[in-house]
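The data are passed on as follows:
___
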Amino acid sequence: MKKIPFTHKVFTNVHLLDIIVSVPKESELARKDLKFMEEQELRQQICDICNKMWQLGWVAANDGNVTAKIGEQRFLATPTGISKSFITPDKLLVVNEKGEILEGATGYAPSSEIKMHLRCYEERADVGAVVHAHPPTATGFALAQIPLDSYSLIESAIAIGSVPITPFGTPSTEEVPNSIAPYLDEHDVLLLENHGALTVGSDVLTAYYRMETLELCAKTIFVARTLKQGTPEQEIPREKLAELIKMRSGYKITGKHPGYKKYS
């Protein structure tokens, strides 16, 4: 069979056809399919994290919320009024930078705490996801007004550094995002006065892992101080601490670190 060249004229008894053969390129449809698949995977990941937080007892009833950036001024967000144990991919919303719903099933709305999440993205271009929960031990430190700023546990010293307690903010108001904003330049993990905890990360897993690190750090410090009858535990020597913090680059840890910073 004779091959058709790049430009070949085929005559018929009706009309002339110009057949142009070109090297195929990635189609717009293929790119959209890939983006759709990535978003579906992220939706499932968010649901898995929500269910994990519920299993760990970090959220009760309708507590907690998770968001993730999926594009320019587009964010996936968990809806309000639903237990994190019941979250499914189809229930997640897509909101813009103002918290307005762009996509989502009828009857669902974002949490009033969406303002806090959106402030994180506004203040930090490197943030790709935000997790808010109420892990009991860490939240207990927030209620007791005790910042987690002891550099005594190697893992937390490297991964998150000290964790301050942000000032009280009335839920659903601008007080909450305004209270966390001054700390975001140095911290990926925050305790919220009389409220809970907030973590940010380059992706949703990183943000979740930081919440795990926070709660483990809080539990460990609580046990140490209980054993020592309230006496603070011994910190890692400063020269060794400096070496540990430098190891972040080798471990490819993203985000911010306050260095050696105290709040108590």
User: Anything to note?
Assistant: Helices lie at 28-55, 114-123, 136-143, 154-159, 175-180, 204-227, 238-250. The first helix runs from residue 28 to 55.
